[in-house]
Design goal:
With 318 residues, the chain is mainly α. It has six helices and five strands.
C-alpha cells in the first residue's frame, strides 16, 4: 500500500476578485493505492483518484486484451500501467508550475514591491511540487528494488525473463520521474532568480530615490549657506547702526561745535559686550574641539577593528 499526492494549479481567472472573496488558486490530489498479488489474482484498489484517471485506466486495461492474462496474475503488471498515468499527472502539474514561472519571467519589467507576496506564493507551490515528485520517484525506485528481488527468486526462466522486463519498465518510469523532478527543481531556481532580480531592482530604485534626496538636501544646504553669507554681510552694518541709535551717543549741530558727543556711561557697553562675545566664542571653540576629538577616536576605533579583522583572517588562512 502506498500514498501519493499531486499539487495542481487552477486555471487563472482573468477577472479581478475582491480580497474577501479570493479563493485558493490550487488544489491537492491525494491518492491511495492498495495492491495484493497471489498466484491466481492481481488486485489493485485506487482511492481518491481523478475521475478521468479511473476511466482512462479501465479503457487501457480493456485495450490490452492480450496482456489481460499477465495483468491478472503477474506481480507489478498493473503497477506499470498505473505508473504511466501517474507520471502524466505529475508531468502536467510541473508544466503548470513552469508556465506560471515563465509568465513571471515575461512580465518582470512590470514587477513592483506589491508583487512580492504573489512571487513567494508561487515559490511555495514549486517547493511542494518538487517534494511530491521526489517522493513519487522514491516510491517507484522502491518498487523496482522489490521487483528485482522477486526476479532473482524466480525458478522458471520464462517467469524470470518477464519479471526482468517489468523491472526495466519500472526503471524507465523511475528515470522519467527523475526528469520531471529535475524540471521542478529548475522551476524553483528560475523563480528564485526572479525574486532576487526584483529585490535588487527595487533596491536600485530606492538608491536612486535616496540620491535624489541627497541632491535636494545639498541644494538646501547651499541655499542656507547663501542666507548665512547674506546675513553676515549685513550684520556689521546693522550692529553699527544699532550702536549709533543708542542714547550713549548724541549729535546736535548747534552745540559742541557740531561734533558727536558720548555719554560717560559708554564704558558699561564695552564691559558687558566684550566679555559676553569672548565667552560665546570660547564656548563654541571648546565644543568644536570636543567634536573633532570624538570624530578622531571613532575613526581610530574603526581602523583598529579593521586591522584586527584582517589579522584574524590572515592567521586563519595560515
Amino acid at each position: 500500500m502506498f500514498r501519493l499526492i499531486v499539487k495542481k494549479l487552477k486555471p487563472q481567472n482573468k477577472e479581478k476578485v475582491e480580497p474577501q472573496k479570493k479563493e485558493k488558486n490550487y488544489y491537492w490530489i491525494e491518492m491511495g493505492f492498495f495492491t495484493r498479488w497471489t498466484d491466481r489474482s492481481n488486485l489493485l484498489i485506487c482511492f481518491d483518484t481523478p475521475e478521468e484517471f479511473r476511466q482512462q485506466f479501465v479503457d487501457t486495461l480493456q485495450a490490452r486484451q492480450n496482456d489481460a492474462g499477465e495483468c491478472a496474475h503477474k506481480p507489478y503488471a498493473l503497477h506499470i500501467i498505473l505508473m504511466d498515468f501517474l507520471i502524466h499527472l505529475y508531468d502536467q502539474s510541473i508544466w503548470d508550475m513552469s508556465n506560471k514561472v515563465r509568465e513571471i519571467e515575461e512580465h518582470r519589467e512590470f514587477q513592483t514591491n506589491e508583487d512580492y507576496p504573489g512571487l513567494h506564493e508561487v515559490a511555495r507551490h514549486t517547493a511542494h511540487a518538487t517534494e511530491t515528485v521526489q517522493v513519487a520517484g522514491n516510491v517507484i525506485e522502491r518498487m523496482a528494488s522489490e521487483c528485482e528481488a522477486l526476479a532473482e527468486r524466480e525458478t522458471d526462466d520464462d517467469a524470470e525473463q518477464a519479471m526482468y522486463e517489468r523491472l526495466e519498465s519500472l526503471r524507465m518510469h523511475h528515470s522519467m520521474m527523475l526528469g520531471v523532478a529535475a524540471r521542478s527543481i529548475s522551476n524553483e531556481k528560475r523563480l528564485s532568480n526572479e525574486i532576487n532580480l526584483l529585490f535588487n531592482t527595487m533596491a536600485q530604485k530606492d538608491n536612486g530615490v535616496n540620491l535624489q534626496i541627497a541632491r535636494a538636501t545639498k541644494a538646501d544646504g547651499v541655499a542656507m549657506k547663501t542666507i548665512a553669507i547674506v546675513t553676515l554681510t549685513f550684520l556689521p552694518a546693522t550692529y553699527v547702526s544699532a550702536i549709533l541709535g543708542m542714547n550713549l551717543f548724541s549729535y546736535n549741530p548747534d552745540t559742541h561745535g557740531g561734533h558727536i558727543t558720548y555719554s560717560p556711561d559708554l564704558w558699561l557697553y564695552f564691559v558687558v559686550s566684550i566679555p559676553l562675545t569672548a565667552a560665546v566664542l570660547t564656548i563654541w571653540w571648546v565644543w568644536q574641539r570636543r567634536e573633532e576629538k570624538a570624530g578622531d577616536l571613532e575613526h581610530g576605533s574603526e581602523k583598529a577593528n579593521k586591522s584586527v579583522g584582517t589579522g584574524t583572517w590572515s592567521s586563519r588562512s595560515k
